[in-house]
């Protein structure tokens, strides 16, 4: 199974390398106020893909952290209930007589 996975990754790498090699001509990205960025097309694509991935991770980070806090709170609650069940009822003091 590991060989198949590595073969798929290798083929994917070769395909992406061929894509990058065929898109090396310069492209100009124009921003506001006359600012322009000129770079190879594949570099611009990679930069915007990475920026999109980072924005996606940042957008989901709040939900992820909230869920982790909720899981910790529920685990503590379960532990507290289990500990309360395990404690034996207080036995009456021995009678002196």
What is this structure, in a nutshell?
With 97 residues, this protein is mainly α. It contains two helices and two strands.
Task: Please outline the helices and strands.
Elements: H1 2-22, E1 26-30, E2 36-40, H2 41-86
Antiparallel strand pairs: 1-2
What does this structure look like?
The protein is built from two helices and two strands. The protein has helices at 2-22, 41-86, and strands at residues 26-30, 36-40. The chain has a two-stranded antiparallel sheet with strand order 1-2. Strand 1 (26-30) and strand 2 (36-40) form a beta hairpin. The longest helix is centred in the middle third of the chain and has 46 residues, at 41-86.
Instruction: Please give the largest β-sheet.
Output: 2 strands, antiparallel
In one word, what is the shape? Answer: elongated
- Overall pLDDT metric: 88
Helix content: 55-70%
Strand proportion, as a percent range, falls in: 5-15%
How many beta-strand segments? 2
Distance between the termini: 77 Å
Residue runs with pLDDT of under 50 for 5 or more positions: none
Counted by DSSP, the helix tally is: 2
What is the C-alpha radius of gyration, as a whole number of Å?
Answer: 30 Å
SSE order in H/E notation? Answer: HEEH
Class computed from helices, strands and strand pairing: mainly alpha
Strand order of the largest sheet: 1-2
């Amino acid at each position: 199974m590991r060989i198949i996975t590595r073969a798929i990754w290798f083929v994917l790498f070769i395909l992406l390398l061929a894509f990058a090699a065929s898109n090396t001509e310069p492209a100009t990205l124009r921003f506001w106020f006359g600012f322009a960025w000129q770079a190879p097309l594949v570099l611009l694509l990679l930069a915007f893909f990475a920026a999109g991935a980072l924005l996606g991770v940042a957008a989901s980070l709040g939900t992820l952290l909230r869920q982790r806090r909720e899981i910790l709170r529920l685990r503590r609650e379960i532990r507290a209930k289990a500990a309360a069940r395990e404690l034996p009822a207080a036995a009456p003091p021995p009678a002196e007589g």
